[in-house]
Design brief:
Length: 265
């Protein structure tokens, strides 16, 4: 990873209020291609609000989000997606009866801007491409099974393949491993890290398990009450007094907290 080049994402003084609550209060950070950046902080810190401003679901009240040199604030989600900002979605119930491959084929068609109705007439369309993506996430052998019968961790892999169908330059993952067992969690993040390395993609993710964050994040930013209180490499963050105090409460160490939530969060 090179940090000497221009950042892929440059967030400056970004803010959003809900009523009187400053959910995100003037935060600034950068993200480079090929970097896995963890956004951490206690519940209500403003992590999801930050994600939703970057993907266009929410409009920022203040600040700037430069992506690849283009301002994203004020753009529609679809426009932002088309520019190469992807996010993982849960496979909707209506698509669970489709096979693994069909779900990815549909995402590929959508990326090409084809109408949904095309799908009915083109069951084999993009199948090879879909299989190649499924191979990358270790799901090729299950391509013809319906998503509804998959194990939870495997569904998450398919969701990742679906997100990759848009060939994003930046992938946003808000709590990607929620509800997963520690082993599945590690496996999904290892896979994500591989994709980052292979494709030079950037990833911004939130994660509760500190084990996972320390094992996979290249860098971390820490939010508390909408403010960015620290950023740096995992080891720097772990020893940061402000993080220890604000994020974990006085008297607790990062290690103790990580041990306490590591296997259960
Ligand atoms: P996190 O993802 O870090 O848990 P959020 O970004 O979801 O935090 O929330 C940050 C703050 O903004 C919280 O106080 C939350 O209650 C508030 N908030 C988030 N979304 C909304 C909304 N749509 N309407 C009102 N308040 C919201
Ligand atoms: Mg959240």
């Amino acid at each position: 990873m090179s940090t000497s080049n221009a950042p892929l994402l440059k967030v400056e003084n970004l803010g959003k209020s809900f009523g009187g609550v400053k959910a995100v209060d003037g935060i600034s950070f950068e993200l480079h291609a090929g970097e896995l950046l963890a956004l951490i902080g206690p519940n209500g810190a403003g992590k999801s609000t930050t994600f939703n401003m970057v993907n266009g679901q929410l409009k920022a009240d203040q600040g700037s989000i430069l992506f690849d040199g283009h301002e994203l604030v004020g753009r529609k989600p679809r426009d932002i997606w088309r520019r190469g900002v992807g996010r993982t979605f849960q496979i909707a119930e209506t698509f669970a009866s489709l096979t693994v491959a069909e779900n990815v084929q549909m995402a590929l068609l959508s990326h090409d801007g084809k109408l949904f109705s095309m799908w009915r007439r083109a069951a084999d369309h993009k199948r090879d491409e879909a299989l190649a993506l499924l191979d990358q996430v270790g799901m090729k052998s299950q391509a013809d099974r319906p998503c509804s019968v998959l194990a939870y961790g495997d569904v998450k892999r398919v969701e990742l393949a679906i997100a990759m169908a848009n060939a994003p330059k930046l992938l946003l993952m808000d709590e990607p491993t929620a509800g997963m067992a520690p082993k599945e969690r590690n496996s999904l993040m290892a896979l994500t890290k591989d994709l980052v390395i292979q494709r030079g993609m950037a990833v911004l993710f939130t994660e509760h398990s500190m084990d996972v964050v320390f094992a996979y994040a290249d860098r971390m930013i820490v939010l508390a009450r909408g403010r960015l209180i620290a950023q740096g490499k995992p080891l720097e963050i772990r020893d940061h007094p402000k993080v220890q105090e604000v994020y974990f409460g006085s008297g607790k160490t990062f290690e103790k907290k990580a041990a306490a939530i590591g296997e259960t969060a």
